[in-house]
């Protein structure tokens, strides 16, 4: 019986191995009918940008809608979009001149009313905008004339321009008023380069180039006529479709598979803002976690062989981090304490801390590959730190973290795709709900940096905060992410670090 | 028959109510929907606002009764994730699952019942052993593996069928085969065991002694009595197929109820999960009732019960 | 006369068949199962490596039949560079324990409920049918998620959850089989002798359910092992470094297209265990039948 089974297993193995090496060159179906066939593993949410948390839905939404401004990530330049120019009237009032002659997909003409109604609607807490941080800096929006609006800010906010750059899309006022959020979800209408022509929610989305897309748009006129986006949850099925030439674009291919696919299809790797880290609870509501001891935190930093982990699991150009931010971000100072891989030093630190017999600690990981968490746990076990590893959904994990019920939380943070350190350390070290360190000095430094307009002043204060964070080993910063894209050999596609695919820039070779 | 059905209807209503209440409670234990909705970048303030906006801050029993009240009028609410009516989402996915589940169930029955009967005629024969091996493989080969092998061979290699999706009827071929293969062992072995039991009984020997044709004895006298547990098991099995094999739906990118339930569970989409569980419990009640009716018809002595 | 002769011969042949089969089945299944038990008991001594020792520089080494294999790891290494042979050997402990333990416990619960429902009928049946249907409608994953949120993920939590959930097939099948038996002569006879309900259920009905119980149990063993895998993979079961066949299959899933042996090996082990349980179950049943007649 053993032989039968093994025989079958190796036969099946042979079939698989053979198929991967023998099958003919992909048929390039997408190029032939000018359709970009896209696969996501996760289902996109309802296409009302203000209620989307997931990346997939946000990507689709940016093809449908436009914001007042646009950021060219290649140059870092803020470009005019639905607004042609803008200025600060006073420190908390911005004024925008709107573009003339823009039309929505349903034929409606764009004007100041659309801007005023859209933004005033979504900043009302009852609307349920998913990320308050995106809109809570706006007090209200006023119409000055048909092509001029003013945004009154509720507080000075350094990220205002970033947010207005494509993150806060403008809906057609009349249509939005009539259908509300549900109406936008059922049939989205925007001014963007593509319009949605067919949708089975969560399953299939078909787009066509919008020929009425306004002239002078920073997104430009797309080269590819049609997009078909499908959800294919199983990665291996995506690979099969790619190899058969029935898929032109997919992403988030694990490094192991990417290297195997590279010889058969086009694999492109691009760095992103997201970083992986382990956060330690220092306050932790009354429970006596060993992580309250700085020596233990330093020991953990020395005990984990991050070089080896990055090489095995992160792939691409990922690197080990020392500061609690992505080096690509503004203000992410690099001259902080470095903790080398030194298990002996870690053991010595533990002994010094009074844990010569080792210690037990619970670590929850969320939204991270299990093997990486296991590798960290195994390294810690080598110096006597026995880790109880629990995987949880991000929501459940973060809830426990905020409640102070976790000594260590291993996860990642994408900084909203933004290249500014404010979007990471203000959240975790600024004294808010996610801050389980509550270091007074750091909170003050971060607050000063956040509210300053002067870049040098911001940089200086962030640097001081990051130094203190590293010196106290409040985090175990792990690595920055790279995303592997699996592409049709006929496709020209450029990845961007903010995890937004810009298919309007893609073209056929 | 009428009191039987009335009793059944009462049970059905109670089951639906109990299941809904229990699962409602479990959903809150398993994860806070507001936190899930806020997503990974959601901060504590965002969670609070969402909690209020979606009415998740009300006491749980209150939320449950307001949900069940609306559900009774056919209003299943709005999906927290898709922001679309739950009814519409389910209407989109239920037919796919019904086609897939029914086709796979029929195929499984067509293969496994005759195979089980043949195996029972001579326990231990080569045929019996072959059937046993099939059952063992069926249980030990992970269905996603079988699915992927079929995809690679028939989809990538020979390009005979679509790799994923169910836009055309050809898209159903592979998933139906895999799903039915997965259900065959239980049905086959249950048929075989029941038949072996019955074939040893006195009345079969009497029938044989009377010189009735062998095939008639097997199919009319023996099968009829061996089939009672099989019918009940088949009902359970069919219900499981309808709730869908999540794995098979993932592998073939089929958007049926199984995956909808699974994904909705992970993202705490309370209204969708509740509606699916309600539908599932009604389906199970219906199936078990039908199974009991068939059994009563097959074995008149049960009717007195 | 000839007819009776023929019938007698047929019966004899059937009995002979069964006896031979029973002994072959028992022997083969028994030896296999004993082997797996042996491996489970002495896994630490048999393993060439520590099953949880990682070596990130030696990840995904292929097994011996590949040209690039490293014979220090005859069955290769997994995605964390852990020796696959060692993990397979140790995995027998988890799979055996969970598979058989949960099946026995769930079987006891399900059989009891099914017997009572089928035997008493009426209100008892209605109540138990209610419980069965309620249970069937509850998604296992939801219950497991909630249980883990309350009690933390561990093999013990998982075993309890599975035992309390997987009795459904036993109950459903036993219930309808009991309904079929209840009006048979021997049960009616026991009733007229004034035997207690418990006695009738345990002494008259239960022995007659043996065949289908064995079948359902052998099916459940595999079911439980695969469910353990699925739930462990979701972080709802075995703690990470614990080697378990089901977990290994789940972990190999990502690599299935390019390194199929990662699934083939634990799959084969699982297949052997199920085969052993099946053969032994059938053999024991046939042997008992042969003795009875």
Question: Would you write up a description of this structure?
Answer:
The complex is a heterotrimer of chains A (509), B (305) and C (293). Chain A is an alpha+beta fold. Chain A has helices at residues 2-22, 29-32, 55-64, 112-122, 132-135, 160-164, 173-186, 235-243, 255-261, 294-303, 306-314, 343-352, 370-382, 394-402, 422-429, 440-451, 455-471, and strands spanning 35-40, 69-72, 77-80, 83-90, 93-98, 138-145, 148-153, 194-200, 204-209, 226-231, 249-251, 266-280, 359-365, 385-391, 408-413, 475-487, 491-492, 507-508. Chain A is built from 17 helices and 18 strands. In chain A, the strands form four sheets. A ten-stranded mixed beta sheet of chain A has the order 8-9-10-1-11-16-12-15-13-14, with helices on both faces. Chain A is globular, with a radius of gyration of 25 Å. The relative contact order of chain A is 0.14. The model of chain B has no long low-confidence stretch (mean pLDDT 79). Chain B has two domains: 2-72, no CATH class; 86-304, MetI-like (MetI-like fold, Orthogonal Bundle), CATH 1.10.3720. Chain B is globular. Chain B is mostly helical. Chain C has helices spanning 2-46, 84-120, 122-137, 140-151, 155-165, 168-182, 185-192, 197-205, 210-233, 245-252, 261-292. The radius of gyration of chain C is 23 Å and the shape is flat.
Q: What does this entry show, briefly?
A:
The complex is a heterotrimer of chains A (509), B (305) and C (293). Chain A has helices at residues 2-22, 29-32, 55-64, 112-122, 132-135, 160-164, 173-186, 235-243, 255-261, 294-303, 306-314, 343-352, 370-382, 394-402, 422-429, 440-451, 455-471; strands at 35-40, 69-72, 77-80, 83-90, 93-98, 138-145, 148-153, 194-200, 204-209, 226-231, 249-251, 266-280, 359-365, 385-391, 408-413, 475-487, 491-492, 507-508.
């Amino acid at each position: 019986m053993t032989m039968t089974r093994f025989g079958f297993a190796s036969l099946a193995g042979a079939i698989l191995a053979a198929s991967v090496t023998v099958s003919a060159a992909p048929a390039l179906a997408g190029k032939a009918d000018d359709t970009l066939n896209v696969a996501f593993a996760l289902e996109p949410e309802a296409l009302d940008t203000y209620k989307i948390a997931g990346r997939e839905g946000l990507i689709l939404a940016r093809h449908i809608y436009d914001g007042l401004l646009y950021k060219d990530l290649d140059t870092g330049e803020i470009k005019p979009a639905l607004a042609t120019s803008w200025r600060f009237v006073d420190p908390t009032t911005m004024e925008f001149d709107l573009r003339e002659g823009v039309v929505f997909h349903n034929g409606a003409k764009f004007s100041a009313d659309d801007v005023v109604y859209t933004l005033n609607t979504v900043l009302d807490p009852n609307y349920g905008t998913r990320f308050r941080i995106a809109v809570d800096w706006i007090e209200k929006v006023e119409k000055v004339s048909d092509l001029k609006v003013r945004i009154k800010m509720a507080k000075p906010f350094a990220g205002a321009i970033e947010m207005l750059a494509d993150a806060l899309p403008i809906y057609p006022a009349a249509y939005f008023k009539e259908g509300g959020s549900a109406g936008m979800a059922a049939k989205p209408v925007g001014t963007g380069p593509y319009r949605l022509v067919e949708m089975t929610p969560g399953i299939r989305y078909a787009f066509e180039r919008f020929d009425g897309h306004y002239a002078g748009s920073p997104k430009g006129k797309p080269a590819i006529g049609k997009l078909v986006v499908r959800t294919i949850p199983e990665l291996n099925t995506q690979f099969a479709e790619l190899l058969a030439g029935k898929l032109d674009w997919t992403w988030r291919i694990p490094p192991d598979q990417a290297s195997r696919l590279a010889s058969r299809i086009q694999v492109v790797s691009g760095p992103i803002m997201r970083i992986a880290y382990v956060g330690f609870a220092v306050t932790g509501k009354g429970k006596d976690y060993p992580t309250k001891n700085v020596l233990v935190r330093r020991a953990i930093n020395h005990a984990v062989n991050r070089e080896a982990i990055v090489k095995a699991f992160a792939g691409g150009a990922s690197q080990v981090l020392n500061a609690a931010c992505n080096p690509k971000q503004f203000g992410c100072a690099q001259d902080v304490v470095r903790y080398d891989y030194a298990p002996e030093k870690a053991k010595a630190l533990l002994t010094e801390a009074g844990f010569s017999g080792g210690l037990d600690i619970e670590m929850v990981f969320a939204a991270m590959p299990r093997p990486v968490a296991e590798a960290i746990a195994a390294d810690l076990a080598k110096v006597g730190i026995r880790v109880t590893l629990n995987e949880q959904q991000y929501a459940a994990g973060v809830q426990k973290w905020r409640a102070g019920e976790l000594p260590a939380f291993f996860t990642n943070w994408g900084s909203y795709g933004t290249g500014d350190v404010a979007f990471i350390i203000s959240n975790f070290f600024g004294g808010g709900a996610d801050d389980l360190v509550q270091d007074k000095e750091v909170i003050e430094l971060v607050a000063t940096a956040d509210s300053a307009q002067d870049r040098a002043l911001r940089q200086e204060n962030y640097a001081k905060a990051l130094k203190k964070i590293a010196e106290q080993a409040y985090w175990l910063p792990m690595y920055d992410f790279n995303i592997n894209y699996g592409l049709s050999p006929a496709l020209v596609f450029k990845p961007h670090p903010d995890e937004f695919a810009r298919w309007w820039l893609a073209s056929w070779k | 028959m009428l009191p039987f059905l009335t009793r059944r209807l009462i049970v059905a209503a109670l089951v639906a109510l109990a299941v809904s209440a229990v699962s409602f409670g479990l959903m809150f234990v398993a994860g806070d929907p507001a936190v899930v909705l806020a997503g990974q970048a959601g901060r504590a303030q965002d969670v609070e606002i969402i909690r209020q906006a979606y009415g998740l801050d009300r006491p749980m029993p209150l939320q449950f009764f307001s949900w069940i009240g609306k559900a009774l009028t056919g209003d299943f609410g709005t999906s927290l994730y898709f922001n679309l009516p739950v009814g519409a989402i389910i209407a989109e996915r239920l037919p796919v699952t019904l086609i897939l589940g029914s086709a796979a169930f029929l195929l499984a029955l067509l293969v496994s019942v005759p195979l089980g009967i043949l195996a029972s005629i001579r326990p231990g024969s080569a045929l019996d052993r072959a059937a046993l091996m099939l059952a063992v493989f069926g249980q030990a080969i992970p269905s996603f593996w079988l699915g992927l092998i079929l995809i690679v061979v028939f989809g990538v290699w020979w390009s005979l069928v679509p790799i994923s999706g169910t836009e055309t009827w050809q898209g159903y071929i592979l998933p139906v085969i895999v799903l039915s293969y997965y259900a065959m062992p239980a049905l086959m072995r249950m048929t075989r065991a029941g038949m072996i039991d019955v074939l040893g009984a006195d009345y079969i020997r009497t029938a044989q002694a009377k010189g009735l044709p062998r095939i008639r004895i097997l199919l009319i006298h023996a099968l009829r009595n061996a089939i009672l547990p099989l019918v009940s098991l088949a009902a359970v099995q069919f219900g499981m197929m309808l709730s869908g094999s999540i794995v098979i739906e993932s592998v073939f990118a089929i958007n049926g109820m199984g995956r909808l339930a699974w994904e909705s569970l992970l993202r705490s989409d309370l209204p969708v999960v509740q509606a699916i569980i309600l539908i599932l419990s009604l389906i199970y009640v219906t199936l078990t009732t039908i199974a009991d009716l068939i059994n009563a018809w097959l074995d008149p002595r049960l009717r007195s019960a | 006369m000839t007819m009776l002769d023929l019938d007698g011969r047929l019966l004899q042949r059937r009995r002979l068949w069964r006896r031979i089969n029973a002994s072959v089945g028992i022997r083969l299944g028994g030896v296999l199962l004993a082997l797996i038990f042996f491996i489970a008991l002495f896994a630490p001594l048999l393993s060439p490596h520590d099953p949880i020792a990682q070596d990130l520089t030696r990840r995904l080494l292929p097994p011996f039949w590949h040209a690039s294999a490293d014979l220090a790891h005859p069955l290769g290494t997994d995605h964390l560079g852990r020796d696959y042979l060692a993990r397979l050997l140790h995995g027998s402990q988890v799979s055996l324990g969970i598979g058989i333990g949960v099946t026995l416990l769930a079987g006891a619960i399900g059989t009891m409920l099914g017997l009572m429902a089928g035997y008493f009928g009426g209100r008892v049946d209605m109540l138990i049918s209610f419980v069965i249907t309620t249970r069937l409608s509850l998604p296992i994953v939801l219950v497991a998620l909630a249980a883990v949120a309350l009690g933390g993920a561990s093999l013990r939590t998982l075993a309890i959850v599975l035992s309390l959930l997987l009795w459904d097939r036993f109950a459903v099948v036993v219930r309808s089989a009991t309904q079929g038996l209840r009006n048979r002569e021997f049960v009616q006879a026991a009733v007229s002798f004034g035997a207690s309900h418990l006695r009738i259920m345990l002494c008259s009905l239960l022995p007659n359910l043996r065949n289908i119980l064995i079948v359902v149990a052998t099916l459940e063993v595999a079911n439980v092992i695969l469910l353990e895998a699925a739930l462990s993979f979701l972080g709802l079961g075995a703690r990470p470094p614990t080697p378990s066949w089901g977990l290994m299959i789940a972990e190999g899933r990502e690599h299935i297209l390019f390194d199929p042996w990662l699934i083939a090996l634990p799959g084969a082990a699982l297949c052997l265990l199920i085969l052993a349980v099946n053969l032994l179950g059938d053999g024991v049943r046939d042997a008992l039948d042969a003795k009875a007649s």
